[in-house]
Design brief:
The structure is a homodimer. By secondary structure, chain A is α/β, with parallel strands linked by helices. The first copy, chain A, has helices at residues 10-23, 71-74, 91-109, 112-120, 144-156, 182-186, 208-213, 231-240, 261-264, 280-297, and strands at residues 2-6, 28-31, 41-46, 62-65, 85-86, 136-140, 159-164, 174-177, 191-194, 218-222, 243-248, 268-270. The first copy, chain A, folds into two domains: 2-88 and 278-297, 3-Layer(aba) Sandwich (Rossmann fold); 91-270, 3-Layer(aba) Sandwich (Rossmann fold). The longest helix of chain A has 19 residues, at 91-109.
Chain lengths: 310, 310
Amino acid sequence: MSIAVSLPSSDKTEWWCQMLRDLMPDWNIYPIDKVPDPDAITYSVVWRPSTGAMTPFRNLKAIVSLGAGIDHVLADEKLPEDVPIIRTVGTDLTQRMKEYIALHVLRHHRELPQIQANQAAHVWDQIIVPPAPERRVGIMGLGNLGAAAAQMLAQIGFNVVGWSRSPKTITGVTTYAGDASFGTFLDGTEILVCLLPLTDSTLGILNADTFNRLKRGASVINAARGPHLVDRDLIEALSSGQIAAATLDVFHVEPLSKDHPFWGHPRITVTPHVASMIDAPTGSKIVAKNIRTFEETGSVADLADAKRGY
Amino acid sequence: MSIAVSLPSSDKTEWWCQMLRDLMPDWNIYPIDKVPDPDAITYSVVWRPSTGAMTPFRNLKAIVSLGAGIDHVLADEKLPEDVPIIRTVGTDLTQRMKEYIALHVLRHHRELPQIQANQAAHVWDQIIVPPAPERRVGIMGLGNLGAAAAQMLAQIGFNVVGWSRSPKTITGVTTYAGDASFGTFLDGTEILVCLLPLTDSTLGILNADTFNRLKRGASVINAARGPHLVDRDLIEALSSGQIAAATLDVFHVEPLSKDHPFWGHPRITVTPHVASMIDAPTGSKIVAKNIRTFEETGSVADLADAKRGY
């Protein structure tokens, strides 16, 4: 009946411990570096755990990932084998991602980066853009977050297409599935949004070949994982004009290093991995519920597939 | 069977004349300064006509305003009396306004101006904002455009309240009507959007009293008319922190003069009256249809009330 909690900062680890203690008074909840008896730990609650952090826990029933992705857990080369991984998703996280994607798609659609550059130069230039129904927006990844974002964009009025590994049906969205249809999905797309899970087959998928298939002057939004993007290919596509602008929320190394060229690039908007932040007061309720359900039934709806990678 | 067209620039006047000629081949369509016989003019199609521009047209049946507002027509002190004014509204214009309001409300909601200031300083600061359902957005004006924008924001998930002169019912939106409820409408509002018609009673409504009633640190978006805003009151409210940020699409004088302090204000976003632009290819179809309907029936759905002012 003990839980180990591990986040990259001790402040945040303590915040989560406190929230979970309030919700789960029958449980002993410890920061991972202050566990008195490793054998008593049956669950770990983690975001970017350090390598080998969970090796001492021989009685682990499940690992809770503090996010929709599990790539940050699988990155641990010494991860205990065959321990189920529970993803943390919920309406609050879906809501936040919908907002982020709607905001940044609209921002590129309405050419706000150019309008703001004009403001800086005191230039009044009435740029007329087509209305949303004439703008093709492509969503890569149609899991909980991707499907919700696609539906939101369709409600706003965009011409939305979606692409995923396995076939999906979403009201108001034209969907494509599998590698064979990836090119068709990209053809004519003007705003490309990445919400894919990070797996061996999606690593580096935002590359020169993908960019070249989009409509010239397209925009790219990456709110999935840093390694989906080949950084150098983006810089080159921005230089050539094939890509007009990009918004990036995720990076190969986070926080983004102070001297990274993305910070100062005039056509790249950097947001600090805030598209869909879990805060402890909201997230701890989802985590507590998932642990209780798993404890009682041996499973939960948001169980990840470690072999598939998401 | 003749129409006079008047826009502030001769290029745009000629563009509209050409579009209308294509759609109305039975009619003679002239730029207002090239009308051969003023008595033959039965309709004028105008945006910001100059004072007295329509005085020579003694047989005018109706004036077509190239926009949802008619304030720019009523501003003509020599306007022929008792000539009906037809507003130009349509799904395309409503769509564009919905997009603009969704974009700028989301931008303030997610604190993107601060995140972009952080980017300029290479600062990684993960600002956590509440989700949209916990954010109260107030829409002033619930005509075609205001009602559509309010509904769009409710679909995104915001807590939307609306205020108008006469009572309105909008799904998912709490509405208030009349002067007596204005304060209640403003209480707790964090993002205030102005989409009111410009009349004697709405002139200067975005003033210190209004700002002081909002939640401290609120944002203001004006996509209606420049004179709704008391410019100096906004500057002062931004200095005091009562208002955190503003987005302005409309101004007392347009284009905004090169040396206006709004251009360089770090907390004001200036967009050049593009929230809901009518372009000639789309707008001319609405205008042609309205003139034909008025010619056949003596009325149209989008007839304005000159006494009321909108």
